[in-house]
Amino acid sequence: DNDFVKGSYVHVQRFTHNLNAWQALSIEEQELVIGRTRLDAELLMPINANSHAARSELKDEKGEPLLLHQGMPFGTMTKQGLLSVTCAASGDAFTQM
Fold first, then answer.
1. Separation CA 60–CA 83 (nearest Å)
2. Exposed (0-12), middle (13-18) or buried (19+): which is 89, by Cβ within 10 Å?
3. CA 59 to the chain's CA centroid
4. How many C-alpha atoms does 2 have within 13 Å on its Cβ side?
5. Could you report the per-residue pLDDT of 48-96, keeping only the tens digit for each?
6. 94 φ, ψ to 5°?
7. What is the bridge-based pairing of β-strands 9-17 and 80-88?
8. Residue 34 belongs to what H/E stretch?
9. In which element (H, E) is residue 52 found?
10. What is the pLDDT of residues 9-50, one digit of tens each?
11. Which end of the chain is more exposed for a tag (fewer CB within 10 A), N or C?
12. Residue 4 pLDDT > 80
């Protein structure tokens, strides 16, 4: 990272959702995937290390976020998903996802 001091890392990804498969999961299964309760978005404890919450809400030793994320939904009648832009001060943050 010495060559990129004070630089930024950007990751852009387009996710296509299979909403039929997602809706076929039980609420409990959906909560395990996300790592939060569906009703009030509370973190599940103990948190599943492979859940979305555990892998995307990364913090440093001071509790500061390692990633800045912005998502924008997209969709047509046949395809729906999310365009995701994630920024970080270090490429190491992306290896923890």
1. 25
2. middle
3. 13
4. 0
5. 999 999 988 889 999 999 999 999 999 999 889 999 999 998 888 888 8
6. -70, -25
7. antiparallel
8. helix 27-34
9. helix 52-56
10. 999 999 998 989 999 999 999 999 999 999 999 999 998 999
11. N
12. no
